[in-house]
Description:
Structural class of chain A: alpha/beta
Low-confidence stretches of chain A: none
Distance between the termini of chain A: 47 Å
Number of helices of chain A: 16
Mean pLDDT of chain A: 91
Oligomer: homodimer
Number of domains of chain A: 4
Largest interface: A-B, 45 and 45 residues
Largest sheet of chain A: 7 strands, mixed
Amino acid sequence: xxxxxxxxxxxxxxxxxxAGESLLRAALEAGVHINASCGGEGVCGKCRVLVxxxxxxxxxxxxxxxxxxxxxxxxxCLTKISxxxxxxxPVESGVDKSVMHLQVTPRRTAIIQHxxxxxxxEEGFFISPVEKIYLELPPPDAQNNMPDVTRLVEYLxxxxxxxxxxxxxxxxxxxxxxxxxxxxxxTLTLVRPVRDGGKTLILDIQGGDVTGENYAVALDIGxxxxxxxxxxLSTGExxxxxxxxxxxxxxGEDVITRLIYAEKPxxxxxxxxxxxxxINGVLERILKQSKVNRENIxxxxxxxxxTMTQLLLSIDPSNIRRAPYVPTATLYPPFRASLIGIEINDxxxxxVYPQVSSFVGGDIVAGVMGSGMYMNEExxxxxxxxxNAELVVGNKDWLACTACxxxxxxxxxxxxxxxxxxxxAIEDFSIDPVSFEPMIFTxxxxxxxxxxxxxxITMTAVMFEMGVINNNGxxxxxxxxxxIRKRDDVWEYxxxxxxxxxxxxxxALTEPDIDNLIRAKGAIYSGCMTLLEEVGLSLDMxxxxxxxxxxxxxxxxxxAMTIGLLPEIDPDRVTFIGNGSLMGxxxxxxxxxxxxxxVEVTKRMTNFELSETPSYMDNYVAAMFLPHTEIEKxxxxxxxxxxxxxxxxxxxx
Amino acid sequence: xxxxxxxxxxxxxxxxxxAGESLLRAALEAGVHINASCGGEGVCGKCRVLVxxxxxxxxxxxxxxxxxxxxxxxxxCLTKISxxxxxxxPVESGVDKSVMHLQVTPRRTAIIQHxxxxxxxEEGFFISPVEKIYLELPPPDAQNNMPDVTRLVEYLxxxxxxxxxxxxxxxxxxxxxxxxxxxxxxTLTLVRPVRDGGKTLILDIQGGDVTGENYAVALDIGxxxxxxxxxxLSTGExxxxxxxxxxxxxxGEDVITRLIYAEKPxxxxxxxxxxxxxINGVLERILKQSKVNRENIxxxxxxxxxTMTQLLLSIDPSNIRRAPYVPTATLYPPFRASLIGIEINDxxxxxVYPQVSSFVGGDIVAGVMGSGMYMNEExxxxxxxxxNAELVVGNKDWLACTACxxxxxxxxxxxxxxxxxxxxAIEDFSIDPVSFEPMIFTxxxxxxxxxxxxxxITMTAVMFEMGVINNNGxxxxxxxxxxIRKRDDVWEYxxxxxxxxxxxxxxALTEPDIDNLIRAKGAIYSGCMTLLEEVGLSLDMxxxxxxxxxxxxxxxxxxAMTIGLLPEIDPDRVTFIGNGSLMGxxxxxxxxxxxxxxVEVTKRMTNFELSETPSYMDNYVAAMFLPHTEIEKxxxxxxxxxxxxxxxxxxxx
Lengths: 653, 653
């Protein structure tokens, strides 16, 4: 789509957006505030703007009089841009134009990082862990009457240079019939060893040439959701993808309640059974999508946190939640997937991502592997933010990791109007520097129902930068706006009046909400800080941040830095990998290099238990401010804050 | 028991026997002929002898008159020796005493060969394949909070110098509870790798110190019988032994009928099921005998011929009986014994003896390994004689093997009065050189019912040496004895008149019987000859013969050489190992050395298909005489035959 230029007056700010963009979102992106609090449904009528030049689409509403419409007024939230336009934002007369520069930085999310298959291929990264090869054996006669297995092994030596082979009884059982039914032409599925000098496993044999049909499954076993991908091992392509809620949710929403359930009689078996049911459902769907015959699936790579992995493998996880938090295992041998009830075929090998500790699981290791972090020179900070945040720092030479409990704030938990990132959640925000009226954006552009994690970060950051909230997270009681009020002894800022909401109540951000956010971000920031201090480095040395997990894609990076969730860094150096666990599972389905490296990498990942690291509590206390007790750690923010202060002084002067 | 001296008159031959020996058997051993044809029941009354000096026990019978008894006559077959005696054998007057020297050599069976555990120990031969070790791990605390598996692995490195370990899911699943229930004290069952640089498998873990309870099972899976031994891996001792008929017998007595049954729908499954039932019964009995807890059994080593092994492992054996006789496999990976239905425990590892070919099976390989033949300098001939005879020749540097069909003659099959070696079978024989009256011995000293394999060999050899049978296997029609007669156009020698038998019929050896025996021995001898010729050697270079299988213990070596079943060799250089298959299974339960060597040895065993070896038929035809067309191959026999001829000439002169 062609780009259109929008000039905002009186701000004299111009921005280029693709045709079809909402005018209100374009304003946010340009750093131009327009009052708006109904989420874009055209209900509140506050986002009235004047189209001075050019034509726009839509933007009409009953909230506008015929006269206004004829003059060129539109509701910004309903207006779509289709050509170059000049838009005037009505501002109260007498407001100094310079306050318009008090706007915060525009929204900026992380660059999405995909594996660079092409260059990895060039580097020889892809050593297929599973290969199908086709052999035509000479049929036996009186002179050449080796046993079938010996014949196979000898020709593998000769034709495929395979000298250390491992066979299993099921393959031996099939061999004689397949050879004779297929005229001694057969396809072998070989699994490469992980160790140098290890044996190549003949995983399966099939009659004729089916080398083109070689597939793997990558599975992320999340606490909440299970995602699967069906991978074509010849091309690396993903042929099917599906997800579903982990059936274990009925037995507890979070890891701890599942650990408790697992200790009840029959509990572990039940949890194992239901998660396998979910897996089988996901498998069924990706097989259907991809039209792949399940006989041709060679491996299924599983990645999950320590608890999810152990519940799936029927390993008693009870010590995970008891000091000193010792899991039974962090490394698992390959095994037949069918052994744990996965309905795939008899031979497919389950390969399980190893873990580092009870709280830094295979999902994180998979993210580190899949993102390539473990191979990079630059000092990287890997963050998977959820109720529990896992942190990894390091580079190709060393890695340190930890986990901390951020609490549920980022998922809307413990926030008065908190909700998950779903339709109606306020996800973006701006504030008028004079009237302190809000501009809110909701997921799905509907009237607001609540606040999601990324919205919470943005509104806290914006209000902090605008002086609405101080560095303690308290509202400025002096501001002249009805939106800041005390209710039931709690100070709050009303984001949307009840008529503009879907819930028939005022939606507000409260001081306890901000407090919860500060605790959450403080836990993560101080976790990162402590980790780096333990290895003698500091956060300002971080050259690259990788965000993983669903949440990471929505975070407004500048805002996250403003509240002190992330250290200040060029946003170009922040990447988002999405579901790192699934990415890692997919990548190691495709190359033995990762299967080889991961054992080494997991060993290399020094785990710190923050509760056992004395400096953590000090760092945590210091991080319980916006952005931090030491504003020097956030030099760009400091500069903006000082510039704003000067501007305000010059205006009031 | 004290030895007693017996002087036989008029032979002037003295022999020393243990007190309690039967006088008739002592005579046979001394090479003194006494007519006897009722098997020792005292019925025929022919073995009347006179006790001239000393006292004997028993020996009385209604067949002796009061007068005779008073004179000192006794029936030799009923007489037991209890002190030094002089015994006179009544001979017809006028018989030259020198014919008494025409007696054949006394019975001589093979020396029983047991593994020399002590010297093997000194040589460092016993590298236990399975070891139990006891570890006390420090419990985890905040400073030392490795995962349980890592803790185990690290301490194994430290304390047991184990650096390459392999764990399985079942062990991981048990670990956490065992550690905490047993105060972090545990016993590990480790299985050593076969390959250098391979991994040590942690087969099982148990709480506390149970290192003293470490057992293995050795199993011989025979076509007819299944034998098991329970071995104490700490001492090498056999704590229990039992055998039973292979349940597959109901589906066919021999290998071929079972192969045919296995091809019917469900046939393979049925045969697998019934042999496992037999195994489980044998296991039950040896566990009961030894009072060993089945949880403490680490391995079960299985040895059987190619068909028996494949039926047990559910591997389709149908090509074994079809040219070019290609078995599916000859090497099998270790697997959990419980996987094929063996009721032992969940972890015990089944280790299966490899085979050489369709007809030289794991039972033979086990014999070669267990007897130590593969480590010896001397050129050894290994013979397992049954319906099928398997032959191995070679030494520590090379081995060649083959199998030939001897037919059932050695088991009494195809012999008119043939029977298995059971009570009432004629097992030994002598003949009066003048009257041609027989002296027969039966198993159990009862009236004869038939002839078993070893009896057949002995009587053929004796009659051949005495000139009763010529080198074509035909009776000398000129001899003046009613025992040689033509009945229904078939010449025969009556061994026992009907009144002296249990079957109310004359029991005879017929010319077709002798013909069958010649075919059987000819097949084996020419098999050995062909094998050696193929490697450029000859039978007279053989320095050691090892006999295996039940039959071998009864064979009278000199007689076997006389008929040309075995090459002429000092009988001291013939050893009998009994059930070589079971011996091999036991030996490889005890030392990893055999598990390592066996793969190499099996590869080294060059297999010859006699049907594909052109010289075999010539050798076979040449061996279709007593002892052979070339008597020069049997120089001692030749000498005896010439001496006898001279004696006869001097008598008649």
